[in-house]
Amino acid sequence: MAVIPTTWNPSDKTAMTLSNSDRTATGTGAGGVRSIFSTATGKIYWEVTYNGGTGPGIGIANASATLATVYNTPTNAAVSYNTTTWINNVSQAGAGIPISVAIPQCVAVDLGGKLIWFRSGAAGNWNNSGTANPATGTGGLNITVLGTPLFALAGTSSSAQLIANFGATAFTGAVPSGFTAGLGPDVVGTTSVRIMVLA
Question: I need a surface site. Which of 6, 83, 133, 194 has the fewest CB within 10 A?
Answer without folding.
Answer: 194
